[in-house]
Amino acid sequence: MAEKYNNPKIYDRLWKYGSVQKPTIWSLWKILKDFEGKRNLELGAGDCPRIPVKGGYFLDSSREAIKKLEAIGGIATVGDIINLPFADNFFDLVAGFEVLEHIENDEKAFSEIARVLKPSGFFIFAVPLGQKFFSEFDSAAGHKRRYEVAGLKELLSKNGFQILKYRAPSFYIKIFNKLYSPLIVWFLRNREVKNSLEGFTVPKIFFNLFYQILSFFERTGAPKWKIGTKGLLEYKEKWVVMFCQKEDIIASP
Hints:
Layout: H1 2-5, H2 8-16, H3 29-32, E1 40-43, E2 57-60, H4 63-71, E3 75-78, E4 91-97, H5 106-116, E5 117-128, H6 136-141, H7 149-158, E6 161-167, H8 171-194, H9 204-219, E7 226-227, E8 239-246
InterPro entries: Erg6_SMT_methyltransf, Methyltransf_11, SAM-dependent_MTases_sf
Protein name: Methyltransferase type 11 domain-containing protein
Organism: Candidatus Nealsonbacteria bacterium RIFCSPHIGHO2_01_FULL_43_31
């Protein structure tokens, strides 16, 4: 099932019917707004970018997402995260939210991200944690894995990244996820039985309303960042966002 729902054609259908959401609706805008005017890249943003869009670089497997991002000032490219079409030491920031768990060769993906980042450049990303929690939702969503903290920390270190800070999702987004995850599993199962997922349509208002509700829960009660790696190996949440810096000078923006 994972291969089927990692198909770019599926995402073309999904992104065709919604509007590109403003990055300002997410809690991470408090950090990412400081990168306006910098050379930034977001991987797999779809119609839900987090970095400043105008002048920002985007790489996605979906041509529909690319067209929409270009229409509002993004520099967007269809491409593959394990073979990024950019020069070495090119970006000030690379972002990727709920992307790396979809990549079969994630070690190559981390290596490519490090390659295109400038020395002292920043990397911010979010991934699910705990392989023991791998569920029907993960399978339906096309996840290859859920990460273990120790392995993730080692993978970052291997590619020259230092973890500056990390945080969990808000309490409210965890509740929301519990409510909508079973619905997504049901929806994908239903479409698979009918063998008609690639032909479905969704009203534009549905996508926009969904993102407004999701972003409200995501912003509400967003937890504080934990500095450095203190307590990371004891971290028990099922999801994490990390803000890292490529080796050289380690300093917060």
